[in-house]
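Notes continue from the previous slide.

Worked example: a multi-chain complex. Inputs as given:
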Amino acid sequence: MTAFPAATETGDMMKTAIYPGSFDPCTNGHLDIITRSAKIFDTLIVAVLTNNNKAPAFSVEERIDFLQRVTAGMENVRIAAFSGLLADFARTRGADVIIKGLRAVSDFEYEFQMALTNSKLNPGAETLFMTTSTDNMYLSSSVVREIAMYGGALDGMVPEEIQTKIYDKLRR
Amino acid sequence: MTAFPAATETGDMMKTAIYPGSFDPCTNGHLDIITRSAKIFDTLIVAVLTNNNKAPAFSVEERIDFLQRVTAGMENVRIAAFSGLLADFARTRGADVIIKGLRAVSDFEYEFQMALTNSKLNPGAETLFMTTSTDNMYLSSSVVREIAMYGGALDGMVPEEIQTKIYDKLRR
Amino acid sequence: MTAFPAATETGDMMKTAIYPGSFDPCTNGHLDIITRSAKIFDTLIVAVLTNNNKAPAFSVEERIDFLQRVTAGMENVRIAAFSGLLADFARTRGADVIIKGLRAVSDFEYEFQMALTNSKLNPGAETLFMTTSTDNMYLSSSVVREIAMYGGALDGMVPEEIQTKIYDKLRR
Amino acid sequence: MTAFPAATETGDMMKTAIYPGSFDPCTNGHLDIITRSAKIFDTLIVAVLTNNNKAPAFSVEERIDFLQRVTAGMENVRIAAFSGLLADFARTRGADVIIKGLRAVSDFEYEFQMALTNSKLNPGAETLFMTTSTDNMYLSSSVVREIAMYGGALDGMVPEEIQTKIYDKLRR
Amino acid sequence: MTAFPAATETGDMMKTAIYPGSFDPCTNGHLDIITRSAKIFDTLIVAVLTNNNKAPAFSVEERIDFLQRVTAGMENVRIAAFSGLLADFARTRGADVIIKGLRAVSDFEYEFQMALTNSKLNPGAETLFMTTSTDNMYLSSSVVREIAMYGGALDGMVPEEIQTKIYDKLRR
Amino acid sequence: MTAFPAATETGDMMKTAIYPGSFDPCTNGHLDIITRSAKIFDTLIVAVLTNNNKAPAFSVEERIDFLQRVTAGMENVRIAAFSGLLADFARTRGADVIIKGLRAVSDFEYEFQMALTNSKLNPGAETLFMTTSTDNMYLSSSVVREIAMYGGALDGMVPEEIQTKIYDKLRR
């Protein structure tokens, strides 16, 4: 806290943020949110949802591996898997903030509902929204999967180091 | 930065956020955003826009006075006036974050555009959005002004300590 | 109440609805909402807002005259002027319901906010929304004024009996 | 009808409304709509959709049982199951009104389409929308199921008398 | 190009548009877009998507047959099946334009994302949106299937010549 | 019509599009729509609205001058002023298409209404929407005016050749 010298309180202001998602697979849009959030908060936990209601295209291990590759060198970023309620996971990790990226209105509606729900379940974790940069506004994991399936170009959509792995898994 | 011992970098992570608005007058919705933001960032600057394109109902002095009264006791909150571009003001104050409250989709559309504009003008200040709490979702300064003008009840809409001042100015 | 014989309670269920607006001028879209609402509620009060913040194109007297002409023969429809807060007017008239027509999302956002505000100011009057019929979905008083100003055809947009009066006032 | 003495017409104005849904399970949001609608219309039929396209979490019997418990004591509320087209069900029951609750824009888009479709299939039944109260704005049956599945707190989300039954069925 | 006499360039301006969709089955809304687009572009290719991710109600052959029946006599309209990426199909056919019909905001959000994606994959094909006419605004293939399933009236929803075939396939 | 040899019909398919707006001033977003539209239609008329309801920042002459400078070299683009109804102007010019750029949902709502109105007033001119490219998504004439007023950087927002003229007029 600038201008608030009490040393013991400084630790208090160390802020942990969680960026949850399916990351199936992670895209340049996700990477953009990660990079920008990591500049604002002391620790950023990228949390890969593993609830098995929807069959993902990539296993949890693959999704975590992709995230670790693309965030290598970001010192305050951690990758973690979680199942259950996000509000509970945030409590366990002592997170102060939940970060969500927004592309468009339909995103917003759903995310707004989730933010209100999570704030009821865990008032200690504040949801903050960040706009996707314009370059990535059209991007989503499902668009990436569709393009990869038919061998379309993924340049500018997913980080280079994971493009081959995505084609290998999805291309028909 | 938890687990990153380099002392000189700790100062780096002191984060300043700006919460800009007209606050004409401030409402319980604004106060809710201020309270929640002040818990997350080291310093919160509530910035009262004084561009004189639109004639405000309350003078800058009145609007600042209201904000100072309702934030009395919040140690890391500063009230400031600004004119010109928000992106420039954020740069001058060394702000890392611009906070915006969101009530609904029409808010979001406009704020989204502003966030992209400000990020182009000042890439160093990240816009973060916070959902209005459900209790305040219907609230806006213009709703408050309309109700005060016709003598409707302002309870639960603006902090008690400024209700009389608002009636005095606006009631017909 | 069907199947609830207590005679004294029957009066209780006589329902009065208010349909508020500027009606500057009334359109076929307004007339459609009036016709459909009048079939559902015992009394429908079409309430013409006369707050003089925005300069209307037609005087209150003209707007009321237009509404009386186009609702002639609808026995349970009343036309009234009001100023001040809608919630107060609804209370004075003992209204149980406020009717609003919806055309599109931007309508909805604003109306949603108003509905929550009015429900706080007068919990006894419930706001109910009705979709505009598809034929009238593009219609608004401002579209009608713009077209009339430049002499465009108003057929299908406003009832025939008031078309000439609208041209007389607005055509440049 | 105030001021319309003809006794034979009074029966005409007895209004029946239908509130259709999956209610899988019913939430405080549903209960709020039921309570408010029952004050406006003579009879309110809560209609549980049983088309078996989507596998519900609760059986029709369970969903009806929940609704009966939480509406016990509301004299003009009936619970019924229906399959097929809502427009046909409304015709069979002589309903004048279809009630829908709205939380947000994405709700609204879909409901708007349904209202226009139903009005084409059955012009005699008018769809009216009611805003969800702010307390329940984040609530949906799917949010409740997700929370129950992971043992989160359901207080304020579903009526107390059915909480245990919901946990018993869904908790993993 | 009017007023640009160079004959060789005239061929350049022959424009081919693609109208892609599932057409499961085609509706009057689709037919409206086809009719209006065929007046603007030299050739219109109605492209039936055959990616087998989602089980369609009608086979590709049936869907193409329906489209051929209802577009009989439209000389510059072609019906074609395609799988894979729309951007690739547009390139193969030398299409300059992709036509999409819009009904509402939720349509728009998704279509906006698709337009940006396709423009990245194939900058040579411009996506143009056309509003659905008000008569067809509530219509969608899924609404038609739902109504047909329960024997509701399809008049005004699908062209007469295919109504019986739709009932034969879907009616329970 | 490709593959339809009748020479007399070829002229029929010469298509004129109108791109209407205030262009107060024109931005890179406008220029992007102009460039892309000019590739699709034989003639593109950029039509500057001169209805004097709203006081523009730039005169009609200035706005036309800016457009002429930035479209110099685009052979099938014409700049024209118009007042009155767009539908009438389109009829006078024999336009087949009205082009509109879309940035976001709030744009869309208004434009949708205008498209339906114009189609009623002039069924011969079809409104087609084009998405703004992601680079220009945040841009609007009012954002440009605001930035210029306070001396912010306009690079990437308006074509270089008109930046000085904009500053000269607007900078305080």
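Summary box: Chain E has one domain: 16-136. Chains E and B do not touch (no CB pair under 8 Å).
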